[in-house]
Write a structure and sequence with these properties.
- The protein is mostly helical.
- The chain is built from four helices and no strands.
- The chain is flat.
- The model has no long low-confidence stretch (mean pLDDT 81).
Length: 58
């Protein structure tokens, strides 16, 4: 785990804004409301519900 301020990377910022995946999603108008992540990436949602959520009990 890193400690301290994060260092913004100009290269990573440009790469994310110009990625092919982002352009396809943006041009196709596939912007979904909050809570619809299961439509875009069901594997990730299942992982998060299974592994991460139960461990965040306070």
């Amino acid at each position: 785990m890193k400690i301290g301020m994060r260092k913004p990377s100009l290269i990573k910022r440009v790469a994310t804004k110009t990625s092919v995946k982002r352009q396809v999603v943006h041009r196709a108008g596939l912007k979904m409301p909050k809570g619809y992540g299961w439509v875009r990436n069901p594997k990730k949602v299942a992982y998060n519900k299974d592994i991460i959520k139960p461990h965040l009990i306070f």
